Amino acid sequence: xxxxxxxxxxxxxxxxxFTAAAVVDAHLARIDEVNPQVNAVTVVLAERARQAAATxxxxxxxxxxxxxxxxxxxxxxxxxxxxxxxxxxxxxFAAGDVPPANATFVDRLLAAGAIPVARGxxxxxxxxxxxxxxxxxxxxxxxxxxxxxxxxxGGDAVAVAxxxxxxxxxxxxxxxxxxxxxxAGITALRTSAGRVxxxxxxxxxxxxxxQAMAVNGPLARSVADLDLLFGVMHGADEYDPLSVTxxxxxxxxxxxxxxxxxxxxxxxxxxxxxxxxxxAASALAAAGWEVAEVEPPAVDRCATIWRxxxxxxxxxxxxxxGVFPGPLSAGTVRYFTDNIVDVDLLDTSAAYQGAWAExxxxxxxxxxxxxxxxxxxxxxxxxxxxxxxxxxxxPAAATELWRAHRLLVTANFLGLPAVAVPTGAAGNRPxxxxxxxxxxxxxIALAAARDIEAAFPPITPVSxxx
Length: 466
Description:
By secondary structure, this protein is of the alpha/beta class. The chain has 15 helices and 11 strands. Belongs to the amidase family.
């Protein structure tokens, strides 16, 4: 059963082909088998998951509708509220912080029949492109344990890729869904800003960059699963003033034009990455899309301002003693300290205001560009996933990573939806691309990703390699 997609599991449970209990037991057994090798799952929710599965099976036997996600086993990232365990954000001093209520989108998934079976690992408060912390330790990349699994939703990505769960829940402030999905050889949807409500119901002061650039979304082994999960998750709630309800069309019937950027900004691209982008472009062309190599607007400025805003807003939080009730891991502090060395911090009101004002200009330019090209196709990252420790090897490495992720963070900067989708594998290296659509064009990104996916054989679930 671990080979089945979320859609296949839900169809099978709903039809009576197999029970939710059997699905949950199969995935719990897979966790027991695989997780000791990769450390992707932090907490196994076996008892609660089995209770939920038994209840679901009873409802089905009584003739009730079990919901569109009947029996689908999920992982839930450590910073998304689920009352079954603490929301730690990877912090030792938060190990007892069990939330009083679920995130609204978690409640929606539960009501639709999904069953959380585990929590997914992450770096401290999600601020690394790797997955490691002092509470749970390091998550290993199942394709190559010498290379990082990406972050910050690395635990959930690895859990999905190895068949421990059918789908995962994560978030994305600087590529934290798409990058680990890419590293694991699975799909992920960075949703439009506001389409999925906050990861918890607590209301507290929130930096502007988090308000504008951070989103929650699903990871899965197929684009159809992303669509299924998003269709349940999306919509406003009464706790998140930034959340919105927008219709989610079941299909896209608009213009099918694609702007392909193989090497955004001309800053350099790995040959394997370039080949992946061109292979995806050929797949879209074969599916009837009109494809042209055209550079989207000002990726260099979008990526630069994303870095400036994130560094400026996070510096006081991370580098001021006493902000947290306990210490952050040495790796997170080192990573962030190295990251701000080469950044012109926006440390005057004029500079800070100017950055947000410039964002409006670039958002307008992308809106006009998307009117001509509804899809932008390009790399998730322009370089292979780095070896463990690279991001802590100094300021130059931090800048190199940011440059590689320039198109990744551009979508965050502008609040745009994007889907990471695999395009095969080369040895122990998954290959893939991302597609970016206009604001609230999540269905457009999913449509293009589905056509890319159809051209390549699936490469997961995968068993960990040594």
